[in-house]
Amino acid sequence: MKLIRRQNSDLWNWPPLEQLSTLGAEINRLFDAPFGEFTRHMELLNGRMPVLDVYEDKDNLIVKAELPGMKREEIDISFHDGTLTISGERKYDEKNEGAETYRAERFFGKFHRTLTLPKPVQSDKAKATYQNGILTVTLPKTEEAKPKQIQVNVN
Q1: Which of 9, 58, 125, 140 is the most buried (most CB within 10 A)?
Q2: Is residue 1 part of a domain?
């Protein structure tokens, strides 16, 4: 009887460090995307960025943002290259000296929210109102962005 030595698979001939770096890169890729999205949502939930709605009617894009307890002069709105930015600072004005805090969930400090608008607008005709803690920014769409009615002729 003849003994034959078992041959190792090609798998075991890979450099170990290459295997580890590939594994590490794959683990990082799996965790980066979900946690990046999770972090953004947590900032929204924690109040660091105002929550907002964006919708359109026939002539306008409308952005509504919740900014409770703020004064008009504490809110800044800017528009540049199709991007709307709402920013400001919620100041801490309550003095609770000598009181023990049991829960503090409201956010105070600077915030900003930037969003790219889905259609071109006439920024020079934009209007903003602030009432009952809701900021409403109305941005008229350009003529090119408005829906067009096309008449069909029959011969």
Answers
A1: 140
A2: no
Give the C-alpha distances (Å, rounded to integers) separating 143 from 20, 23, 151: 57, 53, 18
Q: Please tell me the pTM assigned to this model.
A: 0.63
Q: Is the pLDDT of residue 129 over 90?
A: yes
Q: What is residue 141's three-state secondary structure?
A: strand
Asked if 107 and 48 touch (Cβ cutoff 8 Å), the reply is yes
Are 52 and 133 in contact by the 8 Å Cβ rule? The answer is no
When computed from its CA atoms, the radius of gyration of the chain, rounded to whole angstroms, is 28
pLDDT of residue 112: 86
Domain membership of residue 73 as a residue range: 50-92+108-145
Which of 75, 79, 63 shows the shortest CA–CA distance to 137?
Answer: 63
